[in-house]
Amino acid sequence: MTTAATADRAATAAPAVSVRQVSKTFSGRKGQAVTALQDVDLEVAPGEFVSLIGPSGCGKSTLLRVIANLLEPTAGSVEVFGKAADQARRDQDYGIAFQQAGLLPWRTVSANIELPLELHGVGKAKRRARALELLEMVGLADFADHRPDQLSGGMQQRVAIARSLAESPQLLLMDEPFGALDEMTREYMQVELVRICRETGAAVVFVTHSIPESVYLSDRVVVMSPRPGRITEVIDIGLGDRTESLREADTFFTRVTEVREALRGPHAAAQALGVEAR
Amino acid sequence: MNSARERAIRIGAPLVVGALFLFAWEMFVVVRHIAPYVLPKPTAIWEQTLKFFGDIWESFLYSGGNTLAGLLIGALLGVALAIVASRTPFVEQLLSPMAAAVAAMPIVALAPVFNTMFTSTSTTPRRLIVIIVVFFPMFINTVRGLRQVDPIHNELMTSYAATGWQLTRAVRLPGALPFICSGLRISSSLAVIAAVVAEYFGGTQNGLGSRITSAAANTAYARAWGYVVASVVLGLLFYLAALLFERIVMPWQRTAAL
Amino acid sequence: MSVRTQQRPKVSSDEPDVVKVGRTIAAGARLRPIAMSLLAIAIVIVVWELYKVVGPEDGGEYFGMRLLPRADDVSMPHIWSIFERYWQPDVDVAGGSTVAVAVLQGMAFSLGVAGLGWLIGVVVGLGLAILMQRFRTAESGLLPYVVLSQTVPLVALAPLVVGWGGQLKFFGRPWEPWMSVAMISAYLAFFPVAVGVLRGLQSPAATQVELMRAYAASWWKTLVRLRLPASVPYLLPSLRLAAAAAIIGAIVAEISTGTKGGIGRLIIDYAQAATGDPPKPYTAILGAAVLGLVASALVGFIELALRRYRPVEARG
User: Counting beta carbons within 10 angstroms of the beta carbon of residue C252, is it exposed (0 to 12), middle (13 to 18) or buried (19 or more)?
Assistant: First the structure.
């Protein structure tokens, strides 16, 4: 299945994600509609790393879920590698990770990574081999047969990332995957993610609250604002190689300032209060 | 810092309380000259238990067999119907109010009519009582457990384009296990009580409940207490079995004994 | 491939299926559960009558076990004949009261005894819970026995309590059989209260307890201001469980002690008349079922009264 998907992807060379004029309204409690997304356009090239940043309620998580086809847009179209979003979901063209690792506590670490493969009929030996390979990649090879509750938060999140890579997707959708981690673990995980992306060549759509995180990881940062949720600015980062010293570099801080100002933007400063200033 | 001491208290305190209770009981009966038909001495009960051990063992097996059969069938039915209910809202809406109502009703009262319906000499009426008593808590608990799905697991399974049955098998059912286990813990005790009490309503005379009544009717009170002790042991056995089951099927969760 | 395209659980991020279903019911009609209950009752009646038509008169025995009930009128009387029976005289004496009156009287008696048992059970349960919360050693020593008391069929004692009748004095008054019934009822009722309230008393978060400690509040003040209010949400379902347990306890105790006057005794009496008067036992059994619901509803009123005092924080 995945090889077939790779083949037609190569043939069309379609963008990893193509969101056109997407709107999403939720019906609120007393009948009034809440516009979570309005007329959003976004294109992500294969292999590109794009962060979505903005204050709470700006619709960044909704946008991610619309791309993942976990939510149906009210208007507009979403394509993933040139396919309709629900077809892409059924073909497992993307992997997904959330703020909580969301591991199944009754399965071992390895069995958690094998879950998507198991659901799609991959043989036992094959999926075990794949799980071990991925655990190697995230540096948890020794923990294959541990239970999730025996792992720290950071380790659990690495397992979740390994799981999202199980079907070798060329697109990763990540919803604040490091949001619940402490700052030190967080920076370490960022370095790991950059390495994994380099190794797999996958495109990433990354939702975050953290300005430095978005700058450090991304090729482009998409700034969003709430009521109604929309894209207000797209900033090219173009910092080249992600090394530890990059975090201290002047160019890094220039971009951080740029994103911060974009977030304040012409809109009320109060709206930006939801963003962590780190 | 005092974990060793704490464990000593946790295990020791109940033992001390139990021993004190038995001693106080014995002393109370001896000192106050309580007649055996009011309350026999623990030592007298022990004597009778040893003396009639063969009979007690036989009725223990009979009542235990009814309990086990009823518990297994009732629990399996409860879980199976809960799975059906979790996937068909109509069944859920039909069974849930019924389950809530039945929980407030004394099921053992059905024993006499079951005796006429299924012949009082067969084991069916008693087992049926146990099945009904077990079914409803199992059903209610399992439905509740199947409902409690972590939203993330739900999204994850949707992103895998999992089928409804795959979701039930991989996420809902294992996630419901803590609820199923606590239902089983409650039911295991209820099942023993139901099996013993159902025998008070007539029928064959070979179970613990019937033996308690007939021994009491023959003024053999200490022997009746011996059968009571046996039913206490039976209740404990099923409770411990339920705890053990919990440990085996949920190694990832160490729940307290309560 | 084909398997994957089958029905898939389609869930929105912030609204799982179940929540949606729940909301539509609440918004759609409060009457829905009532309608569904009536439908359930109707189904039971239809199945019952249908089985009387197709079922074997003498039941069925398969694999050496009685699996099918007898469909004859003695074992399974027509539903309407049960309801007709309520309006006919209890015993065949001219001018005697109807079965309905007898059943109602039995229900009232049992409700009274079970109510007393419930009250004693609640008081004892509350006391035990507070004791166990106050002293860790009491918790370690008692809690296993509290749990044990319910895992073992101590109701089995009921026939033995008969021996107490007339032998004991209770504050100078003779020990009456109904007192034994109330005691067994209380014995079954105290457990849910003890365990539920203990959990409630222990429910305040560590930060809340630390806050009280920072205010140098005494144990008593902490109990009154923090722990008791916090245990209200736990108390309410416990009271309901205790009510159901008290009713069951009263009925079983009446049967096994042979206490006259209650619905439990009626069940036995009427069961003995079953061969000549098949619908009769069902009238008493239905009465017992309704009694269970009545007790549960009465506790519901207590819940309504207490809900006003239910602190909002305690729910969080």
Answer: buried
